[in-house]
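Quick one: structure for this chain?
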Amino acid sequence: MKRHLRLFVLYFAQYAKVRLAYKADFIIAFFSSMAATVLGFGFVLVLFTKIPKLQDWSFYEILFLYGFSLIPLGFFNVVSWNLYEFGDLYIIEGRFDRILLRPVDTLFQVLFEKFRLESLQEVATGIAVVTISARKLNISWHAADYLWFVVMVASGALIYLAVFLILTAVSFWFEDRVGIVPPVFNMLTFGRYPLTIYNVFIQFMLSWIIPFGFASFYPTTHFLGRENFTIYFHLVPVVAATFAMLAVVVWNRGVANYSSTGS
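Got it. Here's what it folds into:
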């Protein structure tokens, strides 16, 4: 663990140095990412100019949920770059052979060879929006709530990572340059709103099949005083740990199934 932590710091420092060497490119990417985030909030603002509430959810409750969803997603996006390109770069082009030759865990290398530094703005924006919304909603924060908040953010990021790692590992069996990650990624938007506004099928799918609801919606219910979701709130770390273990198992089996490009 100590060795991998040291390697992570070295990986991050080296990539940040290279990325920031092209300042103009980084600034453009940063503001493009921020513009996409702002547009997302714009939709919420437009929505609530037409309706006073979304079912029984007020504007600032939705804003709190939307802001929270950005925090674990932002942390995930920082390390997710290679997951989107894995099938193309590592399997089809044979770069995974190089990964196998190094005396470091394969998953560690794939996750931390690249970082999307501009996604840290999502974390900062999410924290700012949650803070403003909490004040507007007069939410009282206790010492335990701050701890729960950190646990929920970590669990949410782990759930995102686990889901997309499972989808990425499919590339070991099915060589496809596009893969199945993009369509599932588009489903992230559903988790930024209360699951109760969707039909039963979507609620079930976003809770137990692709558990984006446990990464964004259920973690906020405790802070918003929605006591009818208490059991789901406490299940968040359990769901995160379960899917993380499943993802590691699928990944390891995929690595064992890998047969190289032959070149």
